Amino acid sequence: MCGILCAINCDGISKSTEIKNILLRRGPDFSSSVIVNYDNVQMEFACSVLWQQGLSICPQPFETGNFLILFNGDIFNMPCELSSCSDTEWLGNEISKCRCESDICSIIQSLEGPFSLIIYNKTTGILYVCRDALGRNSLIMEAEDSKFRFLSTSYNFNANGDDVPAIMELPPLGLYAFNVTLPTEWKLFTWRETAYTMLDEIKKLNEIFRINVSVENYLQPKWLCNDLETTRSFNFYEMCKNLETTGNNLFEILLENKYVLEELQRFSLLLE
């Protein structure tokens, strides 16, 4: 678990002890920040690291080539021969090879495991933010006027107790991207094909933060493939009501049903 922060035109850990302490509670082993300017926009990227992987601590923010990366999570599908490498370092090395936005999408699409991440392209001024498709790691978004902040744990902009800024857990819909000079114009590369529930979440983002989110091509990770879905359903009440059993062997009897057993085996594969 790490604490990550991207502050755009607002205070980060260099000016706020409160924010620094919030991040340190999530990662006590290493803490660092870097300030980046792009046109008239000032950003601070910061991270507090909890060291759990690799032979040594991988410092964050992780800078490689044109990219700056903040990562909180675990990548389950790293190559076995790189087990001594931290997932942050591995991801950073993969991102550094990207030559275009579709390359970044391909890497994000391939990731398996719980994560939240922030990627900044220092050349183009594009910021990418993302949570895994199941939303297992948090990433809070806060905004007030032209100020934006993404961080692992919520922090109120207003130390004076005035107006409360817009605050929301970033919906885990896919990979978000925007130019930091136009922070209200977003693109979204969704995890899957657009559904009504997804449109509702996008509408909330538009209303709360006054941003325009345009939906691009969807990513479709392999573990979300349609061929893993099933159209079968079971009414266990109906299946059990005529069984002659005391209940002690109910599960064994249900597992004798070929179709129930097949679906449980498919479900087990999804959990691996």
Automatic annotation (TrEMBL):
<keyword id="KW-0061">Asparagine biosynthesis</keyword>
<dbReference type="Pfam" id="PF13537">
    <property type="entry name" value="GATase_7"/>
</dbReference>
<dbReference type="InterPro" id="IPR051857">
    <property type="entry name" value="Asn_synthetase_domain"/>
</dbReference>
<dbReference type="GO" id="GO:0006529">
    <property type="term" value="P:asparagine biosynthetic process"/>
</dbReference>
<protein>
    <submittedName>
        <fullName>Asparagine synthetase domain-containing protein CG17486</fullName>
    </submittedName>
</protein>
<dbReference type="InterPro" id="IPR029055">
    <property type="entry name" value="Ntn_hydrolases_N"/>
</dbReference>
<feature type="domain" description="Glutamine amidotransferase type-2">
    <location>
        <begin position="2"/>
        <end position="181"/>
    </location>
</feature>
<keyword id="KW-0028">Amino-acid biosynthesis</keyword>
<dbReference type="InterPro" id="IPR017932">
    <property type="entry name" value="GATase_2_dom"/>
</dbReference>
<keyword id="KW-0315">Glutamine amidotransferase</keyword>
